[in-house]
Input
Amino acid sequence: MPAPRNNGQARHEDRLGALRGRAALLTQVRAFFAGRGYLEVETPVLGRAGAADAQLAQFALRDPLYGCLYLQTSPEYAMKRLLASGSGSIFQVTKAFRQGEAGRFHNPEFTLVEWYGVGYDHRRLIEEACALIARLVPSLTSEARLMSFRQAFRDRLGIDPIDDPSKRLRECAHAHLPSTRALTLNDRDALLDLLMSHAVAPHFPTDSLTVIMDYPASQAALARINPEGLADRFEIYCGALELANGFHEEANRDEYAARFAAEARKRRARGLPAIAQDEQLLAALAEGDFPDCAGCALGFDRVLMLALDATHIDEVLAFPIGQT
Output
């Protein structure tokens, strides 16, 4: 067995290699979007409103002049304000922050590539996102496989995640994930997330991308609901690793307000702190100039892990949280 690489020089060389790899991939990202006519933008990472999503734990700061401020979990809301003001197709590379996320694929501070294609629907954006990932990770040899959320569950677990009763889903979780037998599992969406991450996605191929589409309306976030009553949302995986999440974006101000309110109710029910609603975004949407578009957020650090064949996110960061 080889001796562990525990000397300072080895760690220094590893870090420099990851930094060079990161720089090379960032250059490719910018070239990719420049070649497609996107405008690179920069929005604040600190704001007076936070993300509505009840599943996201956010860093809140107290400022003597502005009161409560939030480190942004993504640039989504600010970028949508730019879209409403006529920016056209835009992208950015930015830092994002989520509290309590640490592990093999998580660091509380991470890098996102987020973009919005004006005139795009989610299917066109899927093609673009897969083309970007394939450019950054040439080792992905097979074409991306597209399948619906429903089909992914049917193929692997033999259940219908849309129409089956929650009792059936719980029974499935208990059968495939014995550790859940002691859990109540009353939250249907949390149950579906658990099954996807621990019983479905681990069986996706690791040499190609899997794209999951047509999510339940309850998991729409800010995606449009299509005539079949499903969300025009997608997620892109390599094996069990989620790389990207995207929507055909909802454009109606009242729908946003309703979904923000629904997430606020979830936060209260879970005993989570209230999050200030983004009134600036709602005001921009009320003008009625938000374009038909689709947006995608790509976890850049995870893509870099694939490109460099890293096994832990710490390997591709200059200073992971434990070293700051």
Observations:
- Residues 8-35 form the longest helix (28 residues).
- The longest strand covers residues 109-118.
